[in-house]
Amino acid sequence: MIRKLFLNDKFILGLILLNTIVIFLGGYAVSQYDIFLFSIADNLITSLFIFELLVKLKSIGFKQFFKSNWNKLDFFLIIISIPALITFAFNLSMLDISFLLVFRVLRVFKALRFLKFIPNVNQLVAGIQRALKTSVFVLIGFVTYVFIIGILSFYLFNSSGSEYFKNPMIALYSTFKIFTVEGWFEIPEQIIANYSTISSFFIYLYFIIVVLTGGILGLSLVNSIFVDSMVSDNNDELEKKIDNLDKKVTELLNKITENETRKNIG
Length: 266
Fold this sequence. Notes:
This protein has helices at 2-6, 9-26, 32-60, 62-65, 69-79, 82-89, 100-106, 121-157, 168-179, 186-191, 197-230, 232-265. By secondary structure, it is mostly helical. It starts with a helix and ends with a helix.
């Protein structure tokens, strides 16, 4: 009975949803008592996930279990949850060890198990993989352009006193922010405060070019190629159907032509 329960996808989905709710509500816990209760609930569900893993391994076997990529993901997510369980069980949080916080944070990834219950998720994943393979060089080109503009902007405006270009990393982030057409008007407005009217004109012109080439054209190009690659499987299937239909129509027309020729001869 218990074995069938832990092999039931609906029951596991319910546990995943419950665990997600517990993790979410745990963020609102203020008192130590509330935190303790949410920790008990979270680690209890983690224990159930470990038991589920053991049941599946015994039921279908080690090799068969790891043939599925979803099972590999489940295994990984359960394994990274174990340190948090050990930390709680042995009260290791009493020790001043900063890396224990990482173990506590990793438990949120258990919600990723919900993905495999989404209808047609395999087609979605396949589409994303296909889109990434197709658009990888476009993405590399876009990242390179972000890097070039970011470093160029840093050397142009690092002496302006702007917080957006005070070091190369922040300059790269600010450039990407501009490319997403977010804050594109705030950044140049802050920069021109310490420049003359003529310099301000060229600064505005510079950022107009950056927004046009990187934001409107560059990012739009990456998005369009990525989306087109994701739906290309549907287009290929449609093209095959059209080709098959065209063949059948051609065969039908040939038969009609042959029949008319025979009648004329007769």
